[in-house]
Structure formats: C-alpha cells, structure tokens
Design goal:
single chain; mainly alpha; transferase; 71% helix
Length: 298
C-alpha cells in the first residue's frame, strides 16, 4: 500500500501552479472588467465563485495526473522512468486504486463545476464535460491523444484559454480581450511545463511509442519551443499596457523564466531538467499573481 507521501508525490505537486495560475489570472481579468463602464465605478465580484473555480481547476489537474499515472503505468510507459516516482509504474499502488483516485478527483471537479454552471450558464456543463473527457483521454483509452503529439495543445486550451476565460466569465459573465490575452500567456507557460517534461522523456517515450511533440521535433527544436513559449507572457504584458500601464508589473517574473531556461539552453538532460519544471511553474504563478494585481489596480 502506498504511503501518504507517495500519494502526494503521485498527485505531482509541481504541476499545481498550472491549476492555480489560470484562476488567479482570470480573477485579475475579471476585477479589471468589474468596473462600471459608465463612471468607472467598481462593482466587485463574488469571491465564492472564484474559490469554486479554483476547486474545479485543482481537482482536474490532480485527476489528470492520477489518470496519467494509471494509463502510462498499465501500458508500461513508466517502467524505465527518469523523473519522479509514479504510483503504478513503481508498484507502490495498484492500478485500480490509482484509477479510483483519478475518477474521485474528476468527480469533485464535476460537482464544483456543476454548481458554477447552475448559477451562471447551463452551457458550462458541456465545457466541463469536454474538460473531464480531455483529462481522461490524454493518456487513457485505445488512442490517447497525448501519445499522438496533442498534449501541449490540450494543456494550452484547458489550462489556458478555458480556465482563464472561464474564470473571468463565471465572475462577471463576460470575456474581453484582456482575458483572452491573459489566457494565451498562462496557456503558453502551462504548455511549456509539459514541453520540458516531454523533453526529458524523449528517450523513454520514443522506446515506448509515445509520440509527443518533443519526440516529433527532436531535442534541439523542442528546446527552442520551450524558450519561445516562456517569452510569450512578457509580450502579453507589453500588449496589456493598452488596458493599464500597471500590467507591466508582470515583467518582474522575468528572472524566474531565466532560471527555468538556463538548464534548457545549457543542454541539460534527464534529471538535470527537473529544476526547470519547478522554475517554470513558479514563473507562471508569479506572472499570473503580478498581472492579476496590476489589472485589478488598473
């Protein structure tokens, strides 16, 4: 039986910024939009909705991590893993237990999302269903799209566009260009986390038949892709000046992106890329918090 620590490690805490950052950024975009267009009167938001949006995002990412652990484990993809321990692949937990944990987390996300849909718009139920299906079929099912090179696209959509714009919508029932640009920035950094993860796993993924974007592009081009994705948020910061000069505060996160890129640019492989995963997540969270503050103040 896996220990509590092993279950926590299996949830992949390093990926939690991917769930927190879009809700923070979406809340900042909502606060910017929450000013009355006539007289610039601040009308506020309902914070319990933001808390529920965060619960949905966290539940989905932990659920997809356990689902990925289960699916890759039963396929044998994690048999010779370079990175952190996996529950099924290491034999620490049974496939059934990990599968149940995945469904349990996804179920919590579904319930929280249903509450938001009931008080906002019914069609959000459809979006939630698509998100849950995307979480499972990333590595689950007969033809998982994560094995075909669409993982980064899915992360950009679900933990970028959907999460940020969805948060803004449930808080103020509108999505504007500020929310969309902010979503693109967060989605780019979120995708970058998966890119460097797959860069690390190119040898084992190639052997197991998992054709990720990194496997398709090769080592050198994948490193260029990672760096490009991590620059996008700072281009967005400059563009958001049209909404408020306070958006430039997001540039303060640049040193964290430099730290994340250093091993990648330096040619690190395997375990040498693990620090980049954490640094990229920190950069994403820092940029989102700083930009949210800037948008709210602006």
């Amino acid at each position: 039986m896996a220990s509590v620590k092993q279950w926590i490690d299996g949830a992949r805490p390093r990926t939690l910024p991917n769930a927190i950052a879009p809700v923070v950024a979406g809340t900042g975009a909502a606060l910017h939009l929450a000013a009355d267009s006539v007289g610039d009167r601040f009308i506020g938001i309902e914070w319990w909705k933001a808390a529920l949006a965060l619960a949905v995002s966290l539940s989905l990412i932990v659920g997809v991590n356990y689902a990925n652990d289960y699916s890759d484990g039963v396929r044998g993809t994690d048999d010779d893993r370079v990175g952190p321990m996996r529950l099924v692949g290491s034999g620490a937990a049974s496939p059934g237990a990990v599968k149940a944990a995945a469904f349990g987390c996804l179920g919590v996300g579904a319930v929280c999302g249903l509450v938001l849909a009931l008080v906002t718009a019914w069609w959000l139920v459809l979006i939630g269903a698509i998100c849950i299906a995307g979480a499972w079929f990333y590595t689950g099912g007969k033809k998982p799209y994560g094995y075909l090179g669409f993982g980064e696209v899915a992360v950009f959509l679900f933990f970028g566009l959907v999460a940020v714009c969805g948060t803004q919508y449930v808080l103020v029932e509108r999505v504007d260009w500020v929310g969309v640009l902010t979503a693109i920035a967060v989605g780019s950094l979120s995708s970058a986390v998966l890119v460097v993860n797959n860069l690390r796993d190119i040898p084992t993924d190639t052997e197991s038949g998992k054709i990720t974007v990194a496997v398709r592009l090769g080592d050198a081009k994948t490193r260029v892709l990672f760096t490009t994705l991590t620059v996008v948020p700072f281009v967005v910061s400059l563009a958001l000046v049209a909404a408020t000069p306070w958006a430039l505060i997001g540039l303060v996160a640049a040193p964290l992106v430099y730290i994340a890129n250093k091993p990648v640019i330096g040619g690190a492989n395997g375990m040498g890329l693990i620090p980049t995963l954490g640094a990229t997540g920190q950069a994403m969270l820092a940029w989102s918090v700083l930009t949210a503050v800037g948008l709210a103040v602006g």
